[in-house]
Design brief:
Layout: E1 8-13, E2 34-37, E3 46-50, E4 53-56, H1 67-70, H2 75-85, E5 89-93, H3 105-125, E6 130-134, H4 141-153, E7 156-162, H5 176-185, E8 188-192, H6 198-203, H7 211-227, H8 230-233, E9 239-242, H9 249-262, H10 271-275, E10 277-281, H11 287-294, E11 299-301, H12 316-321, H13 328-343
Parallel strand pairs: 1-5, 5-6, 6-7, 7-8, 8-9, 9-10, 10-11
Antiparallel strand pairs: 2-3, 3-4
Helix pairs in contact: 3-4, 4-5, 7-9
Length: about 350
């Protein structure tokens, strides 16, 4: 790989297509999402019909990416675009799974299994440069552990989770078997800006943007992981928090320090490194200030490739690498070394 491509986009995406669900077989076929158009004659919106509920498909589409690339219809097209962007490796996260899709474990399992096998087949076409985060049927823990093993064997470098899963915080003991297996298999947990709680998702239905729904609940997830000492219980587990910027880190650190002191404990500024927790920044963040407070070993960056929201920056890797606020050594840690540490690459 050319030197200029020794960079890692820690948070890219794929847009699911009808191909995604072709891996359902047998009884699972009846759970296959259907692609439907808008009933509004003036609208060109498309929806996924998932377990009887419409989920918008066309609302967060990065039109500055080739369709064949963002939908992974043509892997060479994706690689060519990565070359143009100066990106060596992309870690691919889902799109549809950013929201709660079904209350039924059997439907969730069918969706996750099909998606994971789709990504596994994509990875087999370009194993060096395309890595991915697997989605989990978290309502079925035994099946989740089986999916973790499949994912590890098929190129996944992370397990996708949301800031809240069902009615559980990330520190809930229910997830301990998953964390134990991820630790054993040396695969990271990637907590992405998303919401897996139908209760919270519906509560914020009138929010015009996804700030509270998708981002703040992930900050709360970070807080619970540190406060409830998940890193101590699983001393080899690596966790990343993605697409929520990093501006909130100093504030959260201050809050955690206060709460630790109330328990006659101390939380030091190097806790991210000790706890193996990584956070994805954005180029608009005050990165020098953040690293002055919390160190420079645990900050990564992603482009949000394939999407078109407030976190999307197609040239994020190149822009950060050229940021005059950062030394070349710091920039290289963020776009390369730290992401390799997070994902075990």
């Amino acid at each position: 790989m050319p030197t200029q491509l020794l960079t890692i986009d820690a948070d890219a995406h794929v847009l699911e297509t009808e191909k995604t669900w072709e891996y359902m077989d047998g009884a699972d076929k009846k759970y296959r999402p259907k692609l439907v158009g808008s009933t509004d004659g003036d609208s060109k919106d498309e929806y996924w019909l998932v377990d009887g509920t419409l989920r918008l498909k066309s609302g967060n589409v990065g039109r500055n990416t080739p369709q064949a690339s963002r939908e992974m219809r043509d892997v060479p097209t994706r690689i060519k675009h990565m070359d143009e962007l100066g990106v060596g490796i992309q870690v691919i996260y889902p799109t549809l799974f950013l929201i709660p899709l079904t209350p039924r474990p059997e439907v969730e399992l069918a969706l996750c299994r099909s998606y994971n096998r789709w990504l596994a087949d994509i990875w087999k076409q370009e194993q060096e440069r395309l890595r991915w985060a697997a989605v989990m049927p978290l309502m079925s823990m035994e099946q989740t552990l089986a999916e973790v093993r499949f994912a590890k064997d098929n190129g996944a470098c992370a397990i996708f989770m949301r800031g809240t899963e069902g009615d559980r915080l990330l520190s809930d003991p229910y997830f301990f078997p998953l964390y134990e297996e991820a630790q054993r298999l040396d695969i990271a947990i990637g907590v992405h800006a998303a919401n897996g709680s139908a209760t919270l998702f519906n509560y914020y239905k009138y929010e015009s943007v996804g700030f509270s729904k998708f981002k703040l609940n992930c900050v709360g997830g970070f807080h619970s992981v540190v406060m409830d000492r998940i890193p101590d219980r699983f001393p080899k587990l690596r966790i990343g928090f993605l697409e929520i910027s990093a501006e909130w880190l100093p504030y959260t650190f201050t809050d955690l320090k206060k709460r630790y002191r109330m328990k006659d404990k101390e939380l030091h500024a190097d806790f991210l490194k000790k706890d193996r927790i990584f956070v994805a920044c954005e180029t608009t963040d005050d990165i020098p200030y953040i690293v002055s407070k919390l160190g420079d070993d645990n900050i990564v960056i992603g482009s949000d490739y394939a999407h078109a929201d407030s976190a999307t920056e197609l040239m994020a890797i190149a822009n950060l690498s050229a940021d005059p606020r950062l030394t070349p050594a710091l920039a290289n840690k963020i776009v390369n070394d730290n992401a390799r540490a997070l994902y075990g690459l």
